[in-house]
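Progress against Task 2.4 (sequence-to-structure conversion) is shown through the following example record, which the project officer requested during the mid-term review.
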Amino acid sequence: MAGIETSEDSQTAGRGGRSSLAGNATDKALNLLEAAVAPGHPHRLGDIAAAAGVPKASAHRILQNLVTTSFLASDGNGCYGPGPRLRALAARVTQGCEEDQVMRAELEVLGRRVANTVHLGVRTGDTATCLIKVTSPRPVQTASRVGMHLPLHATSIGKCILSGLSDDELTVLMDRVGMPARTEHTITGLDALRAELDRVRAQGFALDEEENEIGVRCLGAPVRDAKGAIVGGVSISSITYLESRETLLGWTDLIRTTADALHGLLG
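Structure tokens generated for the chain above:
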């Protein structure tokens, strides 16, 4: 059975170092639940425990409880995936949810105007997760998908999220998860990342210059919750040989307007 993916071509980036966040019993259960239903499930006990940063013995006990309560299901061979109760809960959250409908409608409008792929991502622990994807009408597509984990330091959505942190929060987070190079263009130094985030705050948008995936350039804008805190971001992803950097930057007003329209819809 395949291990747990943390991004489209994960090299153990994203969820590494999660052990320091194991926390109390609730934290452990939630981290294990998230790891068990990551793309590619069902997952082995050892992979789930490692991704969640929970000792294997404790993970086994908690996972058994989650199976008993039907939040997870076991295949009988030591692998776990979503159970019927979790699937029902997911359906209740998403089906007919007015906020989801509004967010998707806003993203679809943006997608039609720019004719490129549009994403909405939210922070989930030490990474961001793609919540909504509006696919480009062009034949060449990005490899992203809903539920995919995005490294915070190497994506436009991630940089938007990081721009909302204090310097102390940023330092602690980057010390914990590291800044692995996704490509030759990835920012891997904390000082360089600080300077990049200063630009994001000043300009109100973030760029991913082939930092997460060669051939893909992204423009992002932060999305805030009802209290004004940055909880995610919206992005336009373009294929570099199809769209110029200048064209992408020409959409900054559009993406900031879309991000503003999502204000408060994520909590």
